[in-house]
Amino acid sequence: MLGCASGGPAAPQASRITIDGDVGEWPEDVVVTGDADWVYLRFRVAGQSSTLQAAPETLSILLDADDNRGTGAPIPELPAASSMGIDLEIQFSPMTDAGVPATGVSAIAIDSTGATERLSHADLDFSFAPTFAASATGWYEARIARRPTGSGLLAPTVLQGRGVRGVMGLYDAAGNIAGASEPFRATLPPAGSGAVLSGTPIPATPRGAIRVVSHNVLRASPASNPGAFARMYRALNPDIILVQEWDTDAASVQAWFDEAMPEHAPWHVAMTPGLFGVGIVSRHPISASTADGTLAARTLSIGSSSVRFVAAVVSTPQGDVLAASTHLKCCGSAGSPEDERRLDEARAINAAFGAMATRSLAFRVIGGDMNLVGSRGPLDVLRNGLDADATDMDVAPALVLGDAAYYTWSDDANAFSPGRLDYVVFSDSQARAARAFVVDTARLTDGVLGAVGLRRDDSRASDHMPVVVDLLRR
What we know:
α4 packs parallel to α5. With 474 residues, the chain is an alpha+beta fold. The protein contains six helices and 26 strands. The protein folds into two domains: 11-187, Immunoglobulin-like (Sandwich); 210-473, Deoxyribonuclease I, Chain A. Mean pLDDT is 93; it is low at 1-12.
């Protein structure tokens, strides 16, 4: 296992760390650092091609999280951890009682007697990036909240002290140690108090921009929970919404928006029918779409199954925009049948969208749930050569608003930790992203939420959060 050289005091660098899988901001030999709110780690696994959360091996991060041997227990099988008081362990593809790795992430609290208690990743506000398999030389970044909400065996001093140290171990499917890092350590600044909330306001659309929102709405949840979605869309005031998992027809979706946001009625909708429907909803007229057959490739399919994809030409004040919404195959890991299916779907979408983009357009945009839990390949295949200048479409850099992390999906009850599954790509030769962000209402202060009529749990109306991109024509 590489990338775990010993790290010394480096807390001043933590203010520049973004959880995105790019470790360019890290000092060369630092593995762990922190600020008042978070402990950050970076690591890589030599030769591993699997997704961390669906691997044949278990990667374990063992932390003496308060740099105090008396509050945790030593781990004898790892020499470096035998002299530490390990009080917190985080496992990727955690080992089950049956002795085989499961999927997801698990956290374990350990007390001084060696007793253990399983925690949820949500108890630690834990996340990492990327969700897809890094390359053989690629890095991962992770962070843990310094004010975890777990109780029981999780000591109140854990992550609150002035230091942290630890080691990482790799366990094979039989539970044997396959590799280990060098021990690492860092001093930390004093921990903050209270929740980590941002006072960053939800910005208005810049003058002249077209606001595009991509949102997986979790099996037509706007029908059963209209208030949360109506509040979100009113707060964002989008021009175009690219929706996924709205399991109904275009007329029903239009009626929903006409009632929720009558100031922009009548809304215009292009939808694919049936389960896991994808659609384009616009306050501007739709002049053609694959849904009504006036654009090519009315229904994309691979074998006997269809590809969740719809495209439409939207007549905006900035000119005609070719927009598309998609929802790639879920699940699996790198190289799995599901990942191969995602690649096939991306190729089909690339060919169809490229054939549609033959007329004069202001710009092009594709958004959706890409389900990048295997390889990154589907995203790059999808956008390959689709810009107006025959280069790749650009990926909008949508950080969580008021935060320094990339994630768009979160489910506290799920074994998988929050991750970036949703993307918006656009033709950067024709447009620029004046602003891009993801709305997680749980990260914002009451004042920010109240100013736009949102509630703290509105982003959890779906397991996906809206991705917002403001595009200005070049």
